[in-house]
Amino acid sequence: MGSLWTALEPLLPKVQKPARYIGLEDGSQRPDPQPGQVGWLMMYPDTYEIGLPNQGLQILYEIVNERPDAYAERSYAPWVDLEALMRQRNVPLFSVDTHRAAADFDLIAFNLSAELTYTNVLNCVDLAGVPVRSADRRAEHPLVAVGGHCTYNPEPIADFVDIVVLGDGEEVVSEITEVVREWKTGGRTDGSRENVLRALAQVPGVYVPSLYDAEFDGERLVGIFPRFPDVPEIVEKRTIADLGQWPYPRNQLVPLTEVVHDRLNVEVFRGCTRGCRFCQAGMITRPVRERPAEQVRSMVQSGLRRTGYDEVALTSLSTADFSGIEAVVADTVNDPLNCGQVSVSLPSLRVDAFTVGVAAQIQKARRTGLTFAPEAGTWRMRQVINKLIREEDLYGAVESAYSQGWRRMKLYFLTGLPTETDEDTLGIAELAKNCVELGRAHHKNPSVTVSLGGFVPKPFTPFQWFGQNTPVELQRKIGLVRDATKHSKGVQLKWHDPKATLIEGIMSRGDRRLCPVIEDVWRHGGTFQEWSEHFDHRLWVDTMAAHGLSVDWYVHRHRTEDEVFGWDHLSAGLHRDFLWQDWRDALDHLGLEDCRWTPCYDCGACTGYGIEHVVASAVPPAGGSQGTGQDRSSGGDVPVRLGVKPIAVGAP
Amino acid sequence: MTAPVPFRIRVRFSKLGKVRFLGHRDLARVWERALRKAALPVAYSEGFSPRPRLSFGLALSTAYESLGEYLDIDTWEMWPDLAAVPGRLSACLPEGIDVTAACAVSRSEPSLQQAVTSCTWLIDIVDISAADLGAVVDRALAAPTLMLERERKGNTVTDDLRPQVVALDVVGPTPTGARLHAELGTQPRTLRPSELLAALEPPLEEALVSRTHQWTTSDGARREILPLDATHPMHVGERAS
Ligand code: SF4
Q1: What's the fold here for domain B7-112+225-232?
Q2: Helix, strand, coil % over all residues of chain B, rounded to 5
Q3: Does one domain contain both A280 and A227?
């Protein structure tokens, strides 16, 4: 197991950003593997700059390295320039920690956060010298594992991965390690691969696609069924009950070269119950589990000292909802050891004046820009998606931000939402223009950037039945907003390529029949599809056609209540009838309160697993109405349904 | 107007091994974090986004190694115990970057950019014998001029590099080729090893390049930017792998 460094070193002067490949980060480890130890290669299937900050991989990297019977290193997809040289000189994929060959590890574990990285997964496996199809792998090959949000529908990559891990990885990573250690101790003999996969299928949260058959009746999926009686019919996600028991990463990696989110990141809670209906992350990570404020404080303090960062982000899906937010922020900013040079960022701002107040307290030095996500342009549309921000909340937040010195705002919106009319779409332009007007009272050149994304329905959300808009329709809607803001000084419009949205849509709710499509796209050079300069829409569409698959059927078709989904054999805890009822409620413009502060709706995320919310405060946060409808004193026009929801009985 | 910052610390450091692939901009950020980690006070620039007041000398190309890089750090408070500073900073810097000297310098001293007059380089060339390399060097030194065409601000200009070649000789063979030793002038503009190699006959391609010294001239004599007696012993006698 020698180092590949001497083979790699002469290639590095010839490539862009060679520091991506050298390791040496503060917090990185250089394991010295002992016989019998289980080796994990934690891999992000995109560039170092995107992959290094991934907190999930960093957490698992530390947990595995704390085990006496295992070690972990990291790897990222080499950029196309280095890949070409590696292929030319027969240098295989390597870890950045010790430059060990990827194929020398027992597991290559990918984090999957975006559908367009699937072809990169194949490319990395191939660069490692491992067969891309799991059926072609033998005892000497590593196991290919995937985790992360995209694994809630792993069927499009079912043929390429050995194991899929659902949910929080903190506990299950050790359980998998133990099974793989047994396999190693047994000598990884010929034919033992099937046995270890069978054993792994017994670990809760682990799905082994090769142990299931997908049955089709014409185009329709009949179901995905275990091939053996000991293999579970339904694989449940894993959920850690208490984030406070997992103060990871303890030693966040500090890269030498600039990456995205290049700052200390401290996760303040996991899960979200605001119930935004388009948001898969919110649905699949329930319930809310807060980190004790005291632990957040000490992670911030020791992290800043250790890393030398001058910025810390308090991360979660909605950080202003964290019970201890004000105190933690004040303590960080006022810590004399930080000499006033530390700034705190809240990557997910809530849209209200309270949040801006907190932001003002912390961004004393650098008041550059603020980002809000109203997501939709009219109240009607926001009722449908259950993001119950009133216009006055947005204007209050924006007014407060302008008056406190910010000059630039960024507003995130989705288009192509269920029931969206042109009036809703044009509402986006209206909101943006009004925000600029508010700014004029404070600044000469206020600016609002509207970022418009095309909506992709995701599994395990109430919108999983919805037929995604076509690229033509999305482009038309983008055009509406563009035309409506063309002459408005101060409004900038940015949008996500509707063609990329289409391809994401194919995979988001796709099934196993897409595997050959993904393989073909990869074989024709379709890697780094997240990058606009490499994204090849035609290649995807043509490959779908070549395999006789209809894009329309996968993406644009509305699905019926009785349709069997390719993820029905997986579970995020959420009851399907809860989601269906929520879908019906969406169409009726009915909002749903945050269950942190109301009675439980029995969505299944807690009730199914015997866990509950871990929230320090029994009352909703001060200020806004976003998602909670709490601010009844000043509005009262938020139609929320109280009490336990009636559970509709779904058709069989 | 801003009051002048009263103190300036000049440090010398190495950049060896894997870390040689770190670019200049990234190196600056690594230094900013290291100073915060070491809790050494640094003056910040004024304005919208204050940055620590650091000035690096002549930029080192990415992938070059060095035994002699320099950095000036402005501070409102003199650092205590300068003798302990190299160890304290090295502990906060990545492997391969070690601080080998730290001195207070007067604010009236010229900046590093102005002070450096030449640099000494070791340049590895692969697939060439020491004798062949010697012949190339002899030809270059015997010629009255050493012309190189290069792009500058969108125009093609032809320069004579010869006046900036202070010294050029062959050190000897290496396992893969041979090694050149060169002292190249930096005023009015820096002559880079790659430019020198491009002007040779035939043009050569560099493998590993190391900067070993940066020189200044005072009272007609050449000396290192930080005088050796002001430094801690350099532990970096040979190149890290
Ligand atoms: S089970 Fe009840 S309390 Fe838990 S997330 Fe679902 S609705 Fe909320």
Answers
A1: Alpha-Beta Plaits (3.30.70)
A2: 25, 35, 40
A3: no
* CATH classification at residue A399: 3.80.30.20
ipTM: 0.90
Residue B123 scores a pLDDT above 90? yes
- Per DSSP, B128 falls in state -
Q: Decide whether any atom of ligand 1 lies within 6 Å of the A503 Cβ.
A: no
**Ligand 1 in reach of A647 Cβ (< 6 A):** no
The domain total for chain A is 2
Which ligand 1 atom is nearest residue A288's CA? 5
Interface test with A, best of B16, B18, B24 (most A CBs within 10 A): B18
Q: Which of residues 12-31 of B touch A (CB under 8 A)?
A: 18-19, 21-23, 25-26, 29-30
Nearest Cβ partner for B23 among A13, A19, A21: A19
Where are the alpha helices (H) located in A451-594, listed in sequence order? 471-485, 498-508, 515-523, 537-546, 551, 576-587
CA-based nearest residue to A37, from A88, A12, A71, A85: A71
- How many contacts does A have with B, using Cβ atoms within 8 A? 64
pLDDT at residue A358 in the model: 76
Q: Kindly report the protein residue whose alpha carbon is nearest to atom 8 of ligand 1.
A: A595
Confidence of residue A647 (pLDDT cuts 50, 70, 90): very low
Q: Is A603 in the pocket of ligand 1 (CB under 6 A)?
A: yes
Domain shared by A43 and A167, yes or no: yes
Atom of ligand 1 nearest to the CA of A574: 6
Distances (CA, A) of A529 to A123, A128, A159, B55: 12, 20, 20, 40
Instruction: Clarify whether residues A61 and A208 are in a common domain.
Output: yes
Residue-wise pLDDT tens digits, A421-472: 999 999 999 999 999 999 999 988 999 999 999 999 999 999 999 999 999 9
pLDDT in tens, B138-176: 999 999 999 999 888 888 999 999 999 999 999 999 999
Count of beta carbons in the 10 Å neighbourhood of residue A191: 8
Where in chain B are the domains?
Answer: 7-112+225-232, 117-221
The token pair at B237 is 């006698």
Does A11 sit in the ligand 1 pocket, CB within 6 Å? no
pTM greater than the 0.80 cutoff: yes
Q: Containing domain of residue A371, as a range? A: 263-496+557-609
Q: Is the pLDDT of residue B237 over 70?
A: no
CB-based contact, B32 to chain A, within 8 Å = yes
- In this prediction, residue A329 carries a pLDDT of 84
Whether A222 and A338 map to the same domain: the answer is no
Task: State if residue A454 touches ligand 1 by the CB under 6 angstroms criterion.
Answer: no
Q: 3-class DSSP state for residue A319?
A: helix
- Does A620 fall in a domain? no
The tokens 């349709």 sit on which residue?
A563
Q: Within this chain, do residues A178 and A293 fall inside the same structural domain, yes or no? A: no
C-alpha A478 – ligand 1 centre gap (Å)? 36
Report the pLDDT averaged over residues A517-536.
97
Q: What percent of chain B has pLDDT over 70?
A: 92
Residue A396 lies in a domain: yes
